[in-house]
Amino acid sequence: MLSNTKDVLENAQRDKHGVAAFNVYSLETVQAAISVAEKENQPVIIALGERYFPTVDVEGFSAMVRAMADKASVPVSLHLDHAYEKESIIRAIRCGFSSVMFDGSAYNLDENMRLTKEIVEIAHMAGVSVEAEIGSLARGAFSDEEEGDGILTDPKSAKEFVAETGVDFLAAAIGTAHGMYKGEPKIELDLLDRIRQDIDVPLVLHGGSGTPEDKMKQAIQKGICKINVNTEISMAAVSHLQAYFENKEMVHLSTVMAEMQQSIEPVMTKFVKLFANK
Ligand code: 13P
Known about the structure:
Elements: H1 5-15, E1 19-23, H2 27-40, E2 44-49, H3 58-71, E3 76-83, H4 86-94, E4 99-102, H5 109-125, E5 129-134, E6 138-139, H6 155-165, E7 169-172, E8 177-178, H7 189-198, E9 203-205, H8 213-221, E10 224-229, H9 231-245, H10 253-276
The structure holds 1,3-dihydroxyacetonephosphate.
């Protein structure tokens, strides 16, 4: 069934488990995410980033995901990831996304609050929940995200931000990076404790790829409810296909698509199991 992301995350918060938000770009990536979630009997968040709007028919994609969600045996939410433009957010709301992320992390705190509050008002009128971010992630290797400053979230600002904007869940920057880490990851779990102390909305961890599993497990115990994963999935598919194409003269595209889906399912399974505390 298509589920409200807020409900899914509030359940996760209560039960102290995490929900995977997988970045997707195609039918096969969505099929993989839903199939893995069903096998593991866990909810899943299908996340489409604004950066894929130029190549993805957003309305068509939404209709497809919602039809697949309706058939699914587990809760499936459709989320707009990292949107910088109000127009993209309105477009996603109009075509049935369950939640949207407004990324105003490049603005100063006041401007980020002002813009986020405006988005929250619009989205809530349509029954859509909103994620926002303060602080920002650095970009590691092989990531498809924007370059970030790697500024950690300040707990006092986070408290003010949530109270002022009415945002439903908050992405906190605690040292994870988008993509694979270029050096030793330094995940600040104490900072997460301090952020959690004053905030009761579900917290989101961006940059799941390459993050040490024990750190993610601890982060979930300390209040992270949604973990975003992109790069590791892409890398699994690309390296599998590189090997697959070696010594092959011509293969049919339908076979390639099926190979791609099969190659990402084990990676998604690893994350779903880890977040579910299984
Ligand atoms: P990774 O690419 O590090 O998995 O991060 C994904 C992400 O946070 C998307 O919002």
